[in-house]
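Quick start: what a row looks like.
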Amino acid sequence: MKNIFWIVLVIPSIFLSMIFGQSTNSENLVDYTKLVDPMIGTDWNGHTFPGVTLPNGMVQLSPDTKTSTWNNCSGYHYSDKSILGFSHTHYSGTGAGGGGDILFMPTVGEIKLKAGDEENTESGYRSKFSHENESASPGYYSVFLDDYNIQVALTATKRVGFHKYTFPKSDQANVILDLAHGLFDSPDSLFLQVNENEISGYRAASGGLDNSNTIYFAGKFSKPYASYGLAINDTIRKNISIAKGKNVKAYFRFNTKENESVLLKVAISTVSIDGARKNLEAEIPLWNFDNIRRSARETWNKELNKIQVEGGTKDQQKIFYTAMYHALIHPNIYMDVDKKYRGIDGEIYKAENFDNYTTFSLWDTFRALHPLMTIIDQEKTNQYIKTFIERYEHGLNMPIMEFSGNETYTMIGYHSVSVLADAYVKGIRDYDVKKAYKAMKQLADGERAGKDDYLRYGFVPDDFYIESVSRTLEYSYDDWCVTRLAKDFNKTDYNKFSQRGEFYKNVFSKEVGFMRPKDSNYKWVKNFDPMQVTKLHYTEANAYQYTPFVPQDIKGLIELFGGDEKFEKWLDNYFTTTADPSKITDADVTGLIGQYAHGNEPSHHVAYLYNYAGVPWKTQKMVREIFDTQYNATPKGISGNDDTGQMSAWYIFSAMGFYPVTPGLDYYVIGSPLFDKVTINLENGNKFEIISKNNNADSPYIQSVTLNGENYSRSYLNHSDIMNGSKMVITMGNHPNKNWGTAKKDRPYSPKYECASVPMVNSTGRKFLESSSVSLSCENDKATIRYTLDGSEPDKNSEKFTHQITIAKTSVLKAKCFVDGIHPSYTVAFVFEKLKLQPALNVSNLKQGLKYIYKEVGCAKTADLDKYPSDNSGIISTFNIDSIKDQRAFGYIYEGFIKAPVDGLYTFYLESNDGSVLFLDNKLIIDNDGDHMLQTLYAKVALKKGFHSMKLKYFQMGGGKKLLVRWEKPNSDIEEIPAEVLYH
């Protein structure tokens, strides 16, 4: 009776409220789930998955068709013809793969523990399927497995996946569990325990988008299995109920009647098996599959009803509500029902007064997805920011690119500051604002590739770092984001970050009219081609696509071009200059209209920039063209990776008629609405309505606008007008109204902050043996340059630069430009260090080549290599990793001696993806450590002629690898260190 009494209490308080809690309002809601097609984006480069999840759910239960091709980043691709099984974690729309944890696959017949060949499915447990027998909708997925005559149906709660397998009559109805299966990763440790009532265990793996992760699970079947078996290394072990290893699988066999359904519910946790068990008991205590399916649909429909549209075509409505669906999959709740979660540091915490989330693909989503949430879900926005603060409180940084509780650093910038700034200026502040500001400052002032040199030069030098232009532009925008809070907290910080927000100007070349790479000698890189897509200078883009990325100061950008007309002409060329396919070397650059690449994020705001130049009708025309060419209601309906909802968020905003060009400002730029009526149902009880008259495919142009009955001439919309519950009426036409929104006062604005440009510091060397000659200059001829050599902050009373400076001792040079009437420049700081020659070692009987130790292991930093045993060792002629042909995780330790041919200054360059460190004479000289994209760091050292000890550590987490070690000898050019100078 005690157990029964407990069930009676729990079911009403948790389970029934979860299932029926929204049904009270469901009669007032339109059923928009009928317009959602999760298949949209599953073909070509969309990388979405068709399976089941709840809004921001921790479980994404979906079919996997392949495990390691780029098309299958989500686990599924529409072009595939067979299914491997159904796993519980997936990413929607990402450009890299991960997840695929805890895969189950129903079969009939003999036990097969290997997946088998895609073309010959009989060789393993996978099965052919047909899209004609496949169905997907919010909260429900089904497919018929042709090889086994099994009907599969899936649904889910936040933390539990619910499977329904309908078998034919058989005494060999099986369910295979493959813990070794994963997407783009390798198992580190697998554990499985089976008893009569429960399956439980964990899967720990390295590689993939989530880097290193452990998923715990607990599951139950709806009927007892007739038999089961556990397998280690694909060999079934008799009479065991526990299995451990790197290749653990199991089968569960049932006797089934014709069309008998076997149900399976599986909960996951990142904390423990017990946490998964609690999730299972709380969210699906019973076996009513249809109730859980109905609850999932109702949960989705409540979210979809936050924006109600009328008019447009049926396909446009399908695209819109599917975009809403995709935009609400991530970020994901990342805690158990008892609010325990595993932090990024690996420790277990309990979320107090907030909900912990993860999967912040912020390089993508800061642009539109998070601004969308500031309108339709401010409460969740608060929770995201509280999650950011939690990272800071535990001694870490706010997220950069965090997936499944792992910071991956996979993209440039630090855009959580943008999410915070945007929320703050829009009045979303239900969090510790002071602590948020501290976290924001720590991130903006912290380490990122090229950041130190960005602060020294006012830009990222192209000869030091790849993607230098993109880094400069994104760092500058992110620094500006800090000013959104700094203006209310600290004037000194406000000025500092405002100055850094102007750094974008330092990479604009008026000569060519593009953002252009510049080296550490302040020289423009030669052989410039604005159409060439290259990671050397830009991130997944070319100069066309990154030049307009100055969201913080579009007005300033227009001034750099020479005014409205020249900027308008540049935009016209941007959209009409035909792309050369031979110059597009990145798969992410897709969805082209001229040089505009809608399939990748850097272009997303550009169509709206015509408004700033006083020609909003051209924005209206381009937005409609993007609708027509970049989206459709088929599996190929997204022209690039959906990137956890960013492509979808662009469509949602633009279809409503406006877009957030500048997250961090409280307005949106008006485009061309797609629907006759849009109603945004706000959390505060208000409604914002957009009514478009005479709106059809042949009438993309705005003729006039009213807001709450008053004429409205601005080409932008204030956030407060939305939140206060307004009514905007837009009259459309088939010819542009070239007067509406064109006046200066009616254009979108950019906050103005004028400061002097940063001083340029040229020298004969910042490390020297005798002395260094230094000259200072400023692009503004009217500037006065003040400097100090003792590290103190220069002011108007400091030494004035008038002629070349000779520095003969170690000094800290700080310099600043002053121009009357505007703010002074950012202070640049350079350390000039007088070096002593490092004595050579007295060694003999050396042989050519380096000693190496190879370790096949995933690491987060080079120091981790010391924790693991060697997998191979020997002698190698030089630093070389070419023998690794795939994308495994691995590491090398090289050790030996290098022979310096003459006395003098040597410069060493260490280029790697991922981390590397270089020691010379037992001293760390280059720290290029950590999980990062390709980057080059350098160091100057003074060496006596002869032998010097050398040690290099390198690791790759899994993915694209690179290691290159070069030097520049005295009076010589840079070259790869040759084998003839390396010894052991």
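That is the whole record. The two ends are 76 Å apart (CA to CA). The longest helix spans residues 468-489.
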